């Protein structure tokens, strides 16, 4: 296998010209043509065709392109990981979190636990569950933490998951709100208020179940993909919000949490990782680390 030839195949699909590929690689045009010919000889089928001055992939070329793209991406990821290992002497571990999951995990002293308890170089990434799941599939993310709704939509043979903790849901309001001193609020009274929603598939599924159970529909006036923005809107006194019970003093400043009435929903904070991960012991170690974050 010649990785350069796979790289040329992928670049030809994108650039459509031998001269453009040669310029980007910093080689001469005959060199690219040579590797194109060798690639076809190696796989025993025509991979390229010329139409109106452009190099296009044949059906066989498109099939090989699918695998070549994955191999180049994995190779680049390996280069990044080894570079980090060479520079620091530590493993490089990427944890992907939804914004809600990160708001739950990273309370007041999480950085102390990271700094003192691990010799691993950790990178945190945030994003929607669907995007994080793609990172898990292509191995650019080692472990993700979300609300668990994506688990059943993925082949069980590929992923493993563990519910770390069930977080009760709560209504958030400004400290000046009339309901801020109430131990609970009847669900029917909430329909008179506007809400700001956080765009999170796991949270929305939990709230839909609660609304169906309580036979109530909350009036969503605003939506955002950031917990901090939602709580800022709530702090103004204009809207309410429903979120998992958070503990961060910075996020909760000026706010009151009140439990939802009726059959209280929860947010299933879930860790997910590839079943074929190269170091299962490291995954288990990182799961313990995340549980320690929750215990802070």
Automatic annotation (TrEMBL):
Keyword Transcription regulation: yes
Transmembrane segments: none
Keyword terms of this UniProt record: DNA-binding, Transcription, Transcription regulation
SUPFAM superfamilies (UniProt xref): Periplasmic binding protein-like II, Winged helix' DNA-binding domain
GO molecular function annotations of the record: DNA-binding transcription factor activity; transcription cis-regulatory region binding
Domain HTH lysR-type: 1-58
Family matches, as Pfam families: HTH_1, LysR_substrate
Highest taxon, organism lineage: Bacteria
UniProt similarity note: Belongs to the LysR transcriptional regulatory family.
PANTHER family: HTH-TYPE TRANSCRIPTIONAL REGULATOR, HTH-TYPE TRANSCRIPTIONAL REGULATOR CYSL
Protein name per UniProt: LysR family transcriptional regulator
Species of origin: Paenibacillus albus
